[in-house]
Amino acid sequence: MAVTGNTLVLAAPPAPARAPRAPRGLHGPLAPYRRLFALPGTRRFTAGNLLARLPMGMFGVSAVMMIAGQRGSYALAGAVTATGLAATALVAPWTARLIDRHGQARIAVPATVIAVLGSLSLIVCVRTEAPAWTLFASYAATATTPNIGGMSRARWTHLLQGSPGPHHTAMSFEQAADELCYMLGPVLAAFLCSIVLPEAGTLAAAALLLTGMLVFTSCRATQPPVTAGPRQGSPLRALAPLLPLFLATGVVFGSMEIASIAHLDALGLGAASGPVLALQAAGSCAAGLLYGTLRPRGLRTCLIAMAAAMALPWAAAATGSLLPLALALLLAGMATAPTMVTAMSRVHARTPQGRLNEGMTLAVTAILAGISLGAATAGTLIDHLGPATAYALPAAAALLALAAPKVVPVSGTRDVP
Questions:
Q1: CB-based contact 353:376 (threshold 8 Å)
Q2: pLDDT at position 389, please?
Q3: Nearest Cα to 394, choosing from 368, 363, 373?
Q4: Cβ 413 vs Cβ 350: under 8 Å
Q5: What residues in the chain have per-residue pLDDT under 70?
Q6: CA distance linking residue 80 with residue 350, whole number of Å
Q7: What pLDDT was estimated at residue 8?
Q8: How many angstroms separate the CA atoms of 163 and 166, rounded?
Q9: Exposure of 10 by Cβ count < 10 A (0-12 exposed, 13-18 middle, 19+ buried)?
Q10: DSSP readout, 301-335?
Q11: What burial class does residue 220 get, using C-beta atoms within 10 Å of its C-beta: 0-12 exposed, 13-18 middle, 19+ buried?
């Protein structure tokens, strides 16, 4: 109300200012992921990443089914794939070092071509009944396959510098993508090898790997820059305290799979092995996506949860029933994703500047070594003590991961609590 001359003026109070509306689609549980993929170029390199990552779960199953089907020997098939795994453990860190030094596109594409040629050579050698040593040599050539998961994580780290929340979401997505591809890959490989041709799984995996890598590396704008000058620090030395943890976690993965297959086979439920193991991977995938929307937890908290969850399948196996075991494996799978996401964040923090892909590959190599060790040890336990007892191995490995040396900051690295 105001007086102007002899006139009384009544004025309505000003309307309260409205808060600006948030852009549509940025609320709800999936909002962190929508914001993530709103960044320019991220959708395209992620599409290529997923195409190239799916074959990682296909090559081993395809090779075993093809060699065993054509040569009639699972022992030969297992030895060939084991040789490839050992070659990967040796070659992968060097490939990753070259990628960090010269750039993703410059190294990853020729390395992928060599790996694809190795796969094609394996097909030819199996079909033409070439000597057994040619199978080992051909499959060993696939060890040059770049660590596509590590390269993708390196891109996210480059794009999200100084943004710990979105970076945590990106790492959770990458872990979920790992689980999804390792869940779908063997199923697709088994279908192609059994329904189409014994060689179809390897052919499809090689085509997907090459196509995905070409799409991924064509996204130059999101590629981490190559750091000129001398390299400071050793990733191996910086990550030494973490590698036993990744080794023990690999033992969890490898032993759990073998124990589940053997236990279900002993119950006369061998046909359920695939769906039950897929359920475990699905639990980890879902937990990884959910974890990306939550505040990250401490590594020790995640390890305690994983150690507790790994005891569940051991207890469920004693019931001799499928439903409790399936539920226990689902819960066990859900406990692994937060552990892996948090541990990989430690890798990012501790790896020297400009050598992230090499550091990531060292962690993956430790996991692969643990998977191989866990599978072999579980097989020995199954033969001597029975399949139910073998479930004690992943539980023990989880406790060993929990007891791994405390990670302390290393000079020259960007450690996190």
A1: no
A2: 83
A3: 373
A4: yes
A5: 1-29, 74, 227-233, 270-274, 405-417
A6: 35
A7: 42
A8: 6
A9: exposed
A10: HHHHHHHHHHHHHHHHHTTT-HHHHHHHHHHHHHH
A11: exposed
Q: Report pLDDT for 410.
A: 42
- Alpha-carbon Rg for the chain, nearest whole angstrom, is 25
Of how many residues is the chain composed? 417
pLDDT for residue 227: 66
Q: What is the pLDDT of residues 273-295, one digit of tens each?
A: 667 777 777 888 888 788 877 77
Burial 338-355 (b: 16+ CB within 10 A, else e): bbbbbbbbbbbbbbbebb
What pLDDT is recorded for position 15? 44
**Residue indicated by tokens 């996991």:** 367
Q: Which residues contact 336 (CB under 8 A, 6 or more apart)?
A: 249, 252, 253, 284, 287, 306, 309
- Give the whole-angstrom CA distance, residue 149 versus residue 170: 12
CB atoms within 10 A of CB 141: 20
Reported as type and span, the H/E element at residue 233 is: none
Tokens of 253: 């993965």
Amino acid residing at 375: A
Nearest to 357 by CA among 214, 221, 156, 160: 156
Give, in order, the Cα–Cα distances in Å from 107 to each of 147, 217, 222, 317: 12, 10, 16, 47
